[in-house]
Amino acid sequence: MNEEVKELMNKLKECLVDLDKECVLNLVKKLLEKNVSAIEIVLGPLSEAMEEIGKLYEDGEYFIAELMEAAEIFKEAMKILEPLIKSESAKMRGRKKMRIVIGTVKGDIHDIGKTLVAVMLQAAGHEVIDLGVDVDSKTFIEAIEKYKPDIVAMSALLTTTARYMCEIIRDIEKAGLRDKVKIIVGGAATTKEFAEKIGADGWSANAIEAVKLVNKLSAEKDEAHE
Ligand code: B12
Question: What is the pTM (predicted TM-score) of this model?
Fold first, then answer.
């Protein structure tokens, strides 16, 4: 990455932290003109800015209104970036097409990260059924029975709702469906260790790693059938 691009990326992060929509959209366009990948823009400065905004909220400098505004600006930027993210993700095809049921778990309405993961998985050639946000364990179980997915993907950004993931996995077990699906989890309130502890089959830190994880599970499934 050359110095000019690095500077523009830093400026983009700053503009989103400052909630300057016009500046964000202009810089996104400028970076694309410089042939920076859309995935790099979204997973780099835009995501880093959201994390920073979260910290400002924690410190009492920003309030819920600012979080909402940040989410709006992020979504506006996504309108420009999404078609390009799709074409870039299309180059990351897995061995076998997987069917994935995805949702943000009960009590949690954060949907930006989950939707980005869904968009990239779909563009990478997988079939994605998005259950939306605030999804309880009954809805996940009904979706497993209805769609017979290879993978259930759960997102949680709140510490409280991350805990609920454990309950969902237990309910899937109780329903006798655990060996029918792989379960992957993600979102800011989760870690690799947490995923292992609750008995999930995989975790990833961001959307590109989520595609790689699903592709790995896809290759494993393909090999098991050979
Ligand atoms: C924007 C935002 C909001 C917006 C959400 C808008 C929307 N439509 O999503 C609004 C204003 C609604 C909101 C509300 C609240 N928020 Co909020 N919010 C955020 C913020 C700033 C950014 C989240 C975001 O969009 N990030 C950008 C995306 C791209 O990143 P991501 O979500 O992490 O997703 C990536 C990865 O995690 C991964 N991934 C995500 N899901 C999955 C799933 C799978 C299967 C895999 C493999 C990977 C994966 O891939 C994604 C793409 O790379 C975060 C800060 C942070 N650090 O996350 C706080 C944050 C999550 N919010 C927080 C809080 C406290 C709240 C509220 C409780 C505030 C309140 N008092 O009302 C409410 C809760 C509402 C609810 N019931 O859900 C806290 C949570 C603290 C905690 N540990 O519990 C945070 C961390 C802020 C903070 N530092 O204090 N929030």
Answer: 0.97
